[in-house]
Write a structure and sequence with these properties.
There is one protein chain. The protein is α+β, with helices and mostly antiparallel strands and about 130 residues long. The protein has one domain: 60s Ribosomal Protein L30, Chain: A. The chain is built from two helices and ten strands; from the N terminus they run βββββββαβαββ. It has a six-stranded mixed beta sheet, with helices on one face. A hairpin with a 5-residue loop joins strand 2 and strand 3. The radius of gyration is 14 Å and the shape is globular.
Length: about 130
């Protein structure tokens, strides 16, 4: 089995190191760790709208770094801080995944950092 890690040293809010990779690839499967609306080590300001866009942009950036695209995602996990954000989140989510909808779970959860949404995913791409 071939394993490749992307971004093995993460920096969280306040510049503290976090002990996980942004993504791990194993035999065509890419497991992307939960992403939040973080930029330069800090959560961006704003409600569910800008935070969802930034979170998905961060997820897509990791996919592209590993040579994958949105169309390769087979499963997404979503955590929302406030369940009242569900329908607003879905409108934005559909902009990115409307043509290639993966399987998805979406739950309410208290967040480990001060954000509105966290998203992880699993993607697959047959490797030559």
């Amino acid at each position: 089995m071939s394993i490749k890690r992307y971004g093995t040293v993460q920096t969280g809010a306040g510049g503290k190191p976090l002990p996980f990779a942004r993504a791990v690839e194993a035999d065509g499967w890419l497991y992307v760790s939960g992403q939040v609306a973080m930029e330069n080590g800090e959560i961006i300001e704003g409600n569910i709208i800008p935070q969802t866009h930034k979170t998905i942009a961060n997820l897509i950036a990791i996919l592209h770094e590993a040579g994958y695209g949105v169309e390769d995602i087979v499963r997404v996990g979503v955590w929302l801080d406030d369940p009242r954000d569900f329908w607003t989140f879905n409108k934005i989510y559909q902009e990115y995944f409307g043509e290639h909808p993966p399987a998805r779970a979406c739950v309410q959860s208290s967040m480990m950092v001060d954000c509105k949404v966290e998203i992880d995913c699993v993607a697959y791409k047959k490797k030559d």
